[in-house]
Target: Gamma-glutamyl phosphate reductase
Amino acid sequence: MTDDILRRAREAQRAAPPVGDDAYPSFVQAARKRMAAHWADLTGAGDRDIDRAREKGLPEAMLDRLRLADRHRDALDTAFDGLERALPRTAQAGESVQGMGEVRAHRVLRPLGVILMVFEARAEITLRSAVMCAATGNAVLLRGGSEIAETNAAVGGVLRAALADAGLPEGLVTILDSGDRRQLRALLKRDDAIDVIIPRGGPSLIETCRTASRIPMITGGGGANHLYAHRTADPRTAAALTLDGKLPDPAACTALETVLVDEELAGAYLAALAEAAQAPDAGGLVLRVTDELASRVPAGLAGHLDPTRLGPHDDGREYLDQTLAIRTVSGPQEAIAHIDRHGSGHTEGVLTADDAVAEEFCRRVDAAAVVVNGSLRLNDAPAMGLGAALAISTGRLHARGPVTLDRLYTHSWIIDGANAPRFRTAA
Model:
């Protein structure tokens, strides 16, 4: 079974048109149209997945991750529109260089090959990942969480039809059986047939892939993300950016988990946060603080306090819900040291009116993205002007930060030798 899956994927990838072919924008356009036409079918499958997950007792935060909402449709539509327009530009000829004598070489784009994408229960990722991978000439094997099995099956039908519309091989996209762990273990060992693994999820998922496989990885890891509010920051702005970083989709990898606030700013910040938390969409906010800080929380925030106090076990924690940790620090040195010890290298932010503090923070904090005076959610390819992205990589090789369209290619050198030898004199 595994051999057949891998053989079909490799054959499809080899049979696919070359990079730059018109079939790829056509596929994106077809996927966009079919997604819109079958959105009710996709959300219906998602609702049934959610019903089953609720019966199993999954928490509400997890159920929200399973849900395909209209905002996902709108985001995907925008992403696919940009992808369709970006493909011809991205696939342009690479650099050309003059070598010894008449030798010339130029670089051409190639797909990465066969990609295994392993992710948790987010149906929107299935659509986005499949379209981006296939549109760049790669074959992709998609293994999502069992919680979205019915949604993924529906997505597979939409994508197969879109591939046929564009005249591309059906095997470019394969939705794997998410309930078969033996199949996943077998695939992770197939470095002879899979070129790249892209795991998207929490530390346990990434560690499973890393320890069980020798296949190169582009790691879309979780984010134990911090926002440092310097004493010069505006407290109202800090409060607003705190809520923006935490409450929309609190399980996202760019979600804010810990606020580090200068002791001098803490009182004004908490007062501003109490005011901002009166907004209707902030009702679920849960604040985890120390006993000392709890005694200083304004009355408007008292109802948001977590009875569990902040402790060492919270350092570096990704809550994946509406829980937010707040710690006071003595200044930028302590904040940077805390992030260095407990950050996950995903997204870190600083709020300050002091340019020297911002410069030092950016220089010393090692993360895929460092945000200065903005929401952590700005570490997002469309917000950055980069177009659609497959994941946000925390690795250091090939891709770091948003895994954009150009990161789904590798390259080859085409050398025009002009009949030149390298070491011997030509006859």
